[in-house]
Amino acid sequence: MKDRASAASQSEREEMTAHSRPLTFVSEPILDGQSANAALVRESTETAFMDLRWPDMGRIESFRHSSAHSLLACMPADRNTERTKRKSTTSSLSKSGFRELEIHRLEEERMIDTGKKSTEAAIARGSAAGTTTAAPHSTATSDSAVATPSAPQPSILVIDDELLDMEIIADTLGADYEMLFACEGMAGLEIATTRVPDLILLDVMMPGIDGYEVYKRLRANPRTSEIPVIFITGLGDVAAETRGLTLGAVDYITKPINPEPVKARVNLQIKAKLTRDKLTQLASTDGLTGLANRSYFDAMLAYECARHARSGSELSLILLDIDHFKNYNDTYGHVCGDECLREIARAITAVAVRATDIVARYGGEEFVLLLPETHLQGAVMLAEKVRKSISDLGLPHLHSSAQHVTASLGVASARMLPGSLIFDIVEEADEQLYAAKAAGRNRVSSRALESGI
Protein backbone atom coordinates (compact mmCIF):
# COMPACT_ATOMS: atom_id res chain seq x y z
CA MET A 1 0.00 0.00 0.00
CA LYS A 2 2.85 2.36 0.82
CA ASP A 3 4.42 1.72 -2.63
CA ARG A 4 1.11 2.44 -4.35
CA ALA A 5 0.68 5.61 -2.29
CA SER A 6 4.20 6.76 -3.18
CA ALA A 7 3.61 6.08 -6.87
CA ALA A 8 0.33 7.95 -6.75
CA SER A 9 1.98 10.83 -4.96
CA GLN A 10 4.74 11.02 -7.59
CA SER A 11 2.15 10.96 -10.38
CA GLU A 12 0.17 13.75 -8.75
CA ARG A 13 3.27 15.92 -8.33
CA GLU A 14 4.28 15.52 -11.97
CA GLU A 15 0.77 16.37 -13.15
CA MET A 16 0.61 19.44 -10.91
CA THR A 17 3.98 20.70 -12.15
CA ALA A 18 3.05 20.19 -15.79
CA HIS A 19 -0.10 22.27 -15.46
CA SER A 20 1.45 24.90 -13.14
CA ARG A 21 -1.37 24.51 -10.67
CA PRO A 22 -1.05 26.63 -7.50
CA LEU A 23 -1.61 23.81 -4.98
CA THR A 24 0.14 20.48 -4.51
CA PHE A 25 -1.28 17.80 -2.23
CA VAL A 26 1.02 15.07 -0.89
CA SER A 27 -0.94 11.96 -0.02
CA GLU A 28 1.75 9.54 1.13
CA PRO A 29 1.31 8.57 4.80
CA ILE A 30 3.57 10.31 7.32
CA LEU A 31 3.48 8.68 10.72
CA ASP A 32 6.27 10.32 12.74
CA GLY A 33 7.98 13.65 13.25
CA GLN A 34 11.29 12.81 11.55
CA SER A 35 9.49 11.73 8.37
CA ALA A 36 7.33 14.84 8.49
CA ASN A 37 10.31 17.16 8.74
CA ALA A 38 12.09 15.37 5.90
CA ALA A 39 8.98 15.63 3.72
CA LEU A 40 8.55 19.33 4.47
CA VAL A 41 12.10 20.08 3.35
CA ARG A 42 11.90 17.77 0.32
CA GLU A 43 8.55 19.07 -0.91
CA SER A 44 9.26 22.78 -0.18
CA THR A 45 5.81 22.84 1.37
CA GLU A 46 4.05 26.19 1.73
CA THR A 47 1.28 25.02 4.07
CA ALA A 48 1.08 21.92 6.26
CA PHE A 49 -1.67 20.47 8.44
CA MET A 50 0.00 18.39 11.09
CA ASP A 51 -0.67 16.73 14.43
CA LEU A 52 1.91 18.02 16.87
CA ARG A 53 1.79 14.94 19.11
CA TRP A 54 4.41 12.83 17.34
CA PRO A 55 5.58 9.60 19.02
CA ASP A 56 9.28 10.26 18.41
CA MET A 57 9.65 13.99 19.23
CA GLY A 58 7.88 16.72 21.14
CA ARG A 59 5.44 19.12 19.49
CA ILE A 60 7.76 22.09 19.87
CA GLU A 61 10.85 20.25 18.64
CA SER A 62 9.02 19.15 15.49
CA PHE A 63 7.72 22.65 14.82
CA ARG A 64 11.11 24.25 15.44
CA HIS A 65 12.75 21.97 12.89
CA SER A 66 10.11 22.44 10.24
CA SER A 67 9.87 26.21 10.70
CA ALA A 68 13.63 26.52 10.35
CA HIS A 69 13.54 24.92 6.91
CA SER A 70 10.18 25.98 5.43
CA LEU A 71 7.74 28.85 5.39
CA LEU A 72 4.81 27.19 7.08
CA ALA A 73 1.36 27.92 8.34
CA CYS A 74 0.69 25.13 10.84
CA MET A 75 -2.64 24.00 12.24
CA PRO A 76 -3.12 20.96 14.54
CA ALA A 77 -5.43 18.21 13.30
CA ASP A 78 -6.87 17.71 16.80
CA ARG A 79 -8.62 20.90 17.96
CA ASN A 80 -8.18 19.79 21.59
CA THR A 81 -4.42 20.32 21.33
CA GLU A 82 -2.74 23.70 21.78
CA ARG A 83 -2.84 26.12 18.89
CA THR A 84 0.61 27.49 18.06
CA LYS A 85 1.03 30.46 15.78
CA ARG A 86 4.15 31.41 13.96
CA LYS A 87 4.47 35.02 12.97
CA SER A 88 5.61 35.76 9.45
CA THR A 89 9.36 35.74 9.01
CA THR A 90 11.34 37.91 6.70
CA SER A 91 14.47 36.67 4.96
CA SER A 92 16.31 39.01 2.64
CA LEU A 93 19.34 38.73 0.37
CA SER A 94 21.93 41.46 0.56
CA LYS A 95 24.20 42.64 -2.23
CA SER A 96 26.76 40.02 -1.22
CA GLY A 97 24.12 37.31 -1.37
CA PHE A 98 23.82 36.52 2.29
CA ARG A 99 20.59 35.92 4.14
CA GLU A 100 19.88 37.87 7.30
CA LEU A 101 17.80 35.82 9.68
CA GLU A 102 14.93 37.19 11.69
CA ILE A 103 13.53 34.75 14.23
CA HIS A 104 10.13 35.47 15.73
CA ARG A 105 8.88 33.97 18.91
CA LEU A 106 6.00 31.48 19.08
CA GLU A 107 3.06 32.77 21.10
CA GLU A 108 1.41 30.61 23.69
CA GLU A 109 -2.40 30.32 23.86
CA ARG A 110 -4.84 28.60 26.17
CA MET A 111 -6.07 25.09 25.40
CA ILE A 112 -9.66 25.20 24.19
CA ASP A 113 -11.08 22.61 26.55
CA THR A 114 -8.82 22.35 29.59
CA GLY A 115 -7.68 25.96 29.91
CA LYS A 116 -4.14 24.83 30.78
CA LYS A 117 -1.16 26.71 29.49
CA SER A 118 1.76 25.17 27.68
CA THR A 119 5.04 24.65 29.49
CA GLU A 120 6.86 25.21 26.21
CA ALA A 121 6.39 28.99 26.01
CA ALA A 122 8.19 31.54 23.91
CA ILE A 123 10.33 29.33 21.68
CA ALA A 124 12.43 32.06 20.10
CA ARG A 125 13.04 35.72 20.66
CA GLY A 126 15.19 38.33 19.03
CA SER A 127 15.98 39.82 15.63
CA ALA A 128 17.88 42.67 14.12
CA ALA A 129 15.25 44.96 15.59
CA GLY A 130 15.00 43.16 18.93
CA THR A 131 11.87 41.61 20.45
CA THR A 132 10.72 40.69 23.93
CA THR A 133 8.60 37.91 25.35
CA ALA A 134 6.58 37.60 28.56
CA ALA A 135 7.58 35.10 31.21
CA PRO A 136 6.20 31.55 30.68
CA HIS A 137 3.79 31.74 33.64
CA SER A 138 2.48 35.25 33.07
CA THR A 139 -1.08 35.77 31.90
CA ALA A 140 -1.92 37.48 28.64
CA THR A 141 -1.79 41.28 28.72
CA SER A 142 -2.65 44.01 26.30
CA ASP A 143 0.03 45.74 24.26
CA SER A 144 -0.41 48.91 26.30
CA ALA A 145 0.58 47.06 29.47
CA VAL A 146 3.99 46.03 28.13
CA ALA A 147 6.70 48.11 29.76
CA THR A 148 9.13 49.91 27.48
CA PRO A 149 12.75 49.73 28.64
CA SER A 150 14.15 53.09 29.64
CA ALA A 151 17.61 52.35 28.25
CA PRO A 152 18.70 50.42 25.15
CA GLN A 153 19.55 46.77 25.73
CA PRO A 154 23.09 45.54 25.09
CA SER A 155 23.27 43.92 21.67
CA ILE A 156 24.63 40.48 20.74
CA LEU A 157 25.47 39.32 17.21
CA VAL A 158 25.24 35.58 16.53
CA ILE A 159 27.12 34.38 13.43
CA ASP A 160 26.19 30.74 12.80
CA ASP A 161 24.96 28.71 9.83
CA GLU A 162 22.84 26.40 12.02
CA LEU A 163 19.38 27.93 12.29
CA LEU A 164 18.28 25.71 15.17
CA ASP A 165 21.32 26.67 17.23
CA MET A 166 20.56 30.34 16.62
CA GLU A 167 16.98 29.77 17.72
CA ILE A 168 18.14 28.18 20.98
CA ILE A 169 20.47 31.11 21.60
CA ALA A 170 17.67 33.58 20.83
CA ASP A 171 15.40 31.76 23.27
CA THR A 172 18.11 31.84 25.93
CA LEU A 173 19.21 35.45 25.57
CA GLY A 174 16.41 37.30 23.76
CA ALA A 175 14.66 38.54 26.90
CA ASP A 176 17.73 40.42 28.12
CA TYR A 177 19.53 41.50 24.96
CA GLU A 178 18.92 42.87 21.49
CA MET A 179 19.71 39.95 19.19
CA LEU A 180 21.30 40.22 15.72
CA PHE A 181 21.78 37.21 13.43
CA ALA A 182 23.87 36.33 10.38
CA CYS A 183 24.03 32.97 8.61
CA GLU A 184 27.60 33.26 7.32
CA GLY A 185 30.85 35.12 7.84
CA MET A 186 30.64 37.97 5.34
CA ALA A 187 27.12 38.80 6.51
CA GLY A 188 28.34 38.86 10.10
CA LEU A 189 31.22 41.20 9.23
CA GLU A 190 28.83 43.64 7.56
CA ILE A 191 26.40 43.65 10.49
CA ALA A 192 29.25 43.97 13.01
CA THR A 193 30.63 46.98 11.15
CA THR A 194 27.31 48.79 10.82
CA ARG A 195 25.73 47.92 14.18
CA VAL A 196 28.85 47.44 16.40
CA PRO A 197 27.31 44.98 18.90
CA ASP A 198 28.49 44.59 22.48
CA LEU A 199 29.34 40.90 22.05
CA ILE A 200 29.70 38.43 19.17
CA LEU A 201 28.96 34.71 19.37
CA LEU A 202 30.92 33.24 16.46
CA ASP A 203 30.64 29.73 15.04
CA VAL A 204 33.97 28.26 13.92
CA MET A 205 32.78 25.96 11.11
CA MET A 206 30.81 27.89 8.47
CA PRO A 207 30.57 27.91 4.67
CA GLY A 208 32.69 30.51 2.91
CA ILE A 209 35.11 31.99 5.41
CA ASP A 210 35.37 30.19 8.74
CA GLY A 211 35.11 31.71 12.19
CA TYR A 212 38.85 32.14 12.61
CA GLU A 213 39.06 34.26 9.45
CA VAL A 214 36.02 36.28 10.54
CA TYR A 215 37.73 36.94 13.87
CA LYS A 216 40.93 38.15 12.16
CA ARG A 217 38.95 40.58 10.01
CA LEU A 218 37.04 41.86 13.02
CA ARG A 219 40.31 42.63 14.76
CA ALA A 220 41.72 44.38 11.68
CA ASN A 221 38.80 46.84 11.56
CA PRO A 222 39.05 49.75 14.05
CA ARG A 223 35.24 49.81 14.41
CA THR A 224 35.06 46.16 15.50
CA SER A 225 38.49 45.49 16.96
CA GLU A 226 37.37 45.92 20.57
CA ILE A 227 34.20 43.80 20.40
CA PRO A 228 34.61 40.70 22.62
CA VAL A 229 34.09 37.40 20.79
CA ILE A 230 32.98 34.02 22.13
CA PHE A 231 33.70 31.11 19.78
CA ILE A 232 30.99 28.46 19.37
CA THR A 233 31.70 25.15 17.69
CA GLY A 234 30.81 21.50 17.55
CA LEU A 235 34.44 20.46 17.26
CA GLY A 236 34.92 19.95 20.97
CA ASP A 237 38.68 19.34 20.77
CA VAL A 238 41.46 20.93 22.78
CA ALA A 239 43.38 22.14 19.71
CA ALA A 240 40.40 24.11 18.38
CA GLU A 241 39.72 25.63 21.79
CA THR A 242 43.37 26.58 22.23
CA ARG A 243 43.51 28.19 18.80
CA GLY A 244 40.43 30.32 19.50
CA LEU A 245 41.69 31.49 22.87
CA THR A 246 45.17 32.14 21.46
CA LEU A 247 43.70 34.43 18.81
CA GLY A 248 42.13 36.48 21.60
CA ALA A 249 38.60 35.20 22.08
CA VAL A 250 37.22 35.94 25.55
CA ASP A 251 35.57 32.51 25.90
CA TYR A 252 34.79 29.28 24.09
CA ILE A 253 31.67 27.12 24.24
CA THR A 254 30.84 23.88 22.47
CA LYS A 255 27.73 22.44 20.86
CA PRO A 256 25.17 21.17 21.63
CA ILE A 257 24.19 24.44 23.26
CA ASN A 258 23.56 24.20 27.00
CA PRO A 259 21.42 27.29 27.72
CA GLU A 260 22.26 27.95 31.38
CA PRO A 261 26.10 27.97 31.06
CA VAL A 262 25.82 29.99 27.85
CA LYS A 263 23.64 32.57 29.57
CA ALA A 264 26.02 32.82 32.53
CA ARG A 265 29.08 33.23 30.28
CA VAL A 266 27.38 35.84 28.11
CA ASN A 267 26.15 37.82 31.13
CA LEU A 268 29.69 37.85 32.53
CA GLN A 269 31.21 39.11 29.27
CA ILE A 270 28.52 41.75 28.72
CA LYS A 271 29.02 43.08 32.25
CA ALA A 272 32.78 43.28 31.68
CA LYS A 273 32.28 45.01 28.31
CA LEU A 274 29.92 47.65 29.73
CA THR A 275 32.36 48.31 32.59
CA ARG A 276 35.23 48.80 30.12
CA ASP A 277 33.07 51.11 28.00
CA LYS A 278 32.22 53.19 31.05
CA LEU A 279 35.86 53.49 32.07
CA THR A 280 36.85 54.40 28.51
CA GLN A 281 34.16 57.06 28.41
CA LEU A 282 35.29 58.51 31.73
CA ALA A 283 38.92 58.51 30.58
CA SER A 284 38.05 60.44 27.40
CA THR A 285 35.53 62.93 28.85
CA ASP A 286 36.11 66.34 30.38
CA GLY A 287 34.58 66.20 33.83
CA LEU A 288 33.40 69.81 33.90
CA THR A 289 31.76 70.27 30.49
CA GLY A 290 30.99 66.68 29.44
CA LEU A 291 32.82 67.23 26.13
CA ALA A 292 35.71 65.12 24.90
CA ASN A 293 38.94 65.89 26.70
CA ARG A 294 42.37 66.85 25.35
CA SER A 295 43.65 63.26 25.35
CA TYR A 296 40.74 62.04 23.25
CA PHE A 297 41.10 64.98 20.86
CA ASP A 298 44.81 64.26 20.32
CA ALA A 299 44.05 60.62 19.51
CA MET A 300 41.26 61.52 17.08
CA LEU A 301 43.39 64.19 15.42
CA ALA A 302 46.08 61.61 14.70
CA TYR A 303 43.47 59.18 13.36
CA GLU A 304 41.76 61.76 11.12
CA CYS A 305 45.07 63.08 9.79
CA ALA A 306 46.10 59.55 8.78
CA ARG A 307 42.70 58.89 7.21
CA HIS A 308 42.69 62.17 5.27
CA ALA A 309 46.25 61.52 4.08
CA ARG A 310 44.95 58.35 2.39
CA SER A 311 41.88 59.99 0.88
CA GLY A 312 43.33 63.39 0.05
CA SER A 313 40.30 65.10 1.57
CA GLU A 314 40.41 68.45 3.34
CA LEU A 315 40.50 68.57 7.14
CA SER A 316 39.58 71.68 9.14
CA LEU A 317 40.12 72.75 12.72
CA ILE A 318 38.55 75.52 14.84
CA LEU A 319 40.32 76.73 18.00
CA LEU A 320 38.20 78.88 20.33
CA ASP A 321 39.15 81.01 23.33
CA ILE A 322 36.77 82.91 25.67
CA ASP A 323 37.65 86.59 25.69
CA HIS A 324 38.99 88.04 28.98
CA PHE A 325 38.10 84.88 30.89
CA LYS A 326 40.66 85.51 33.66
CA ASN A 327 38.93 88.80 34.42
CA TYR A 328 35.59 86.98 34.38
CA ASN A 329 36.79 84.55 37.05
CA ASP A 330 38.28 87.36 39.11
CA THR A 331 35.02 89.32 38.99
CA TYR A 332 32.36 86.64 39.32
CA GLY A 333 34.27 83.81 41.02
CA HIS A 334 35.29 80.34 39.87
CA VAL A 335 31.88 78.79 40.50
CA CYS A 336 30.32 81.20 38.00
CA GLY A 337 33.32 80.63 35.75
CA ASP A 338 32.65 76.89 35.71
CA GLU A 339 29.00 77.47 34.86
CA CYS A 340 30.07 79.84 32.08
CA LEU A 341 32.23 77.08 30.59
CA ARG A 342 29.34 74.62 30.73
CA GLU A 343 27.00 77.12 29.03
CA ILE A 344 29.51 77.68 26.25
CA ALA A 345 29.99 73.94 25.79
CA ARG A 346 26.23 73.53 25.35
CA ALA A 347 26.15 76.43 22.87
CA ILE A 348 28.91 74.88 20.76
CA THR A 349 27.35 71.41 20.65
CA ALA A 350 23.98 72.90 19.71
CA VAL A 351 25.60 74.26 16.53
CA ALA A 352 28.10 71.51 15.69
CA VAL A 353 25.53 68.81 15.06
CA ARG A 354 27.30 66.55 12.53
CA ALA A 355 28.01 63.12 13.97
CA THR A 356 31.53 63.17 12.50
CA ASP A 357 32.51 66.48 14.12
CA ILE A 358 34.46 66.31 17.38
CA VAL A 359 34.05 69.03 20.02
CA ALA A 360 36.57 68.97 22.87
CA ARG A 361 37.76 71.11 25.73
CA TYR A 362 41.33 71.89 24.78
CA GLY A 363 42.38 73.32 28.12
CA GLY A 364 41.28 76.08 30.52
CA GLU A 365 38.90 78.36 28.60
CA GLU A 366 39.90 76.97 25.18
CA PHE A 367 37.76 74.67 23.04
CA VAL A 368 38.52 72.91 19.77
CA LEU A 369 36.39 71.56 16.93
CA LEU A 370 37.78 68.89 14.57
CA LEU A 371 35.88 68.85 11.27
CA PRO A 372 36.59 65.88 8.97
CA GLU A 373 35.91 66.21 5.23
CA THR A 374 35.37 69.98 5.58
CA HIS A 375 36.84 72.76 3.43
CA LEU A 376 37.84 76.17 4.76
CA GLN A 377 34.65 77.96 3.72
CA GLY A 378 32.47 75.43 5.51
CA ALA A 379 34.61 75.63 8.64
CA VAL A 380 34.44 79.44 8.66
CA MET A 381 30.65 79.33 8.35
CA LEU A 382 30.45 76.98 11.33
CA ALA A 383 32.88 79.13 13.33
CA GLU A 384 30.68 82.18 12.76
CA LYS A 385 27.63 80.25 13.99
CA VAL A 386 29.54 79.20 17.10
CA ARG A 387 30.72 82.76 17.76
CA LYS A 388 27.18 84.11 17.42
CA SER A 389 25.65 81.37 19.61
CA ILE A 390 28.10 82.25 22.42
CA SER A 391 27.41 85.95 22.08
CA ASP A 392 23.67 85.32 22.05
CA LEU A 393 23.91 83.67 25.49
CA GLY A 394 24.17 87.19 26.88
CA LEU A 395 26.24 86.15 29.90
CA PRO A 396 27.20 89.43 31.70
CA HIS A 397 30.90 90.35 31.55
CA LEU A 398 31.88 93.83 32.81
CA HIS A 399 35.43 93.59 31.44
CA SER A 400 34.31 92.87 27.88
CA SER A 401 33.76 95.65 25.36
CA ALA A 402 30.48 93.92 24.44
CA GLN A 403 29.47 93.83 28.15
CA HIS A 404 28.76 90.11 27.80
CA VAL A 405 30.82 86.94 27.25
CA THR A 406 32.29 86.60 23.75
CA ALA A 407 34.83 84.33 22.07
CA SER A 408 37.55 84.60 19.44
CA LEU A 409 38.06 81.77 16.95
CA GLY A 410 40.92 80.68 14.69
CA VAL A 411 40.26 78.39 11.73
CA ALA A 412 42.80 76.34 9.77
CA SER A 413 42.27 73.94 6.88
CA ALA A 414 44.62 71.64 4.96
CA ARG A 415 44.80 68.75 2.58
CA MET A 416 46.83 66.25 4.50
CA LEU A 417 49.93 64.83 2.82
CA PRO A 418 51.63 61.54 3.79
CA GLY A 419 54.45 62.22 6.25
CA SER A 420 53.09 65.59 7.37
CA LEU A 421 53.42 66.73 10.99
CA ILE A 422 49.87 66.46 12.26
CA PHE A 423 50.05 69.22 14.86
CA ASP A 424 51.00 71.84 12.27
CA ILE A 425 47.30 72.35 11.60
CA VAL A 426 46.81 73.02 15.33
CA GLU A 427 49.61 75.57 15.30
CA GLU A 428 48.05 77.32 12.30
CA ALA A 429 44.65 77.43 14.04
CA ASP A 430 46.38 78.84 17.12
CA GLU A 431 48.02 81.58 15.03
CA GLN A 432 44.67 82.48 13.53
CA LEU A 433 43.15 82.62 17.02
CA TYR A 434 45.75 85.17 18.12
CA ALA A 435 45.11 87.11 14.90
CA ALA A 436 41.40 87.29 15.81
CA LYS A 437 42.28 88.56 19.29
CA ALA A 438 44.70 91.14 17.89
CA ALA A 439 42.01 92.38 15.50
CA GLY A 440 39.66 93.20 18.40
CA ARG A 441 38.29 89.87 19.67
CA ASN A 442 34.79 88.44 19.18
CA ARG A 443 35.61 87.48 15.60
CA VAL A 444 36.87 84.69 13.33
CA SER A 445 40.21 84.57 11.54
CA SER A 446 41.09 81.81 9.07
CA ARG A 447 43.69 80.45 6.66
CA ALA A 448 44.01 77.41 4.41
CA LEU A 449 47.35 75.63 4.11
CA GLU A 450 47.09 75.22 0.34
CA SER A 451 50.14 73.01 -0.17
CA GLY A 452 49.29 70.68 2.70
CA ILE A 453 51.29 70.41 5.87
What's this entry about, in short?
This protein is an alpha/beta fold and 453 residues long.
Average pLDDT for all residues: 75
Radius of gyration: 31 Å
- Helix tally equals 13
Known CATH architecture of the largest domain: 3-Layer(aba) Sandwich
CATH level-four homologous superfamily name of the largest domain = Response regulator
Instruction: Return the string of H and E elements.
Output: HHEHEEEEEEHEHEHEHEHHEHHEEHEHE
Basic shape? elongated
Report the uncertain regions: 15-27, 67-149
Q: For the report, how would you describe the main beta sheet?
A: 5 strands, parallel
Structural class: alpha/beta
CATH topology of the largest domain: Rossmann fold
Strand content: 15-25%
Could you explain how this protein is built, in words?
- It contains 13 helices and 16 strands.
- The protein has two domains: about 90-135 and about 150-285, Response regulator (Rossmann fold, 3-Layer(aba) Sandwich), CATH 3.40.50; about 295-450, Alpha-Beta Plaits (2-Layer Sandwich).
- The strands form five sheets. It has a five-stranded parallel sheet with strand order 8-7-9-10-11, with helices on both faces.
- The protein has about 450 residues and is of the alpha/beta class.
- The chain starts with a helix and ends with a strand.
- The chain has helices spanning about 1-20, 35-45, 60-70, 165-175, 185-195, 210-220, 240-245, 260-285, 295-310, 325-330, 335-350, 375-390, 425-440; strands at about 50, 75, 85, 90-95, 100, 105, 155-160, 180, 200-205, 230-235, 250-255, 315-320, 360-365, 365-370, 405-415, 445-450.
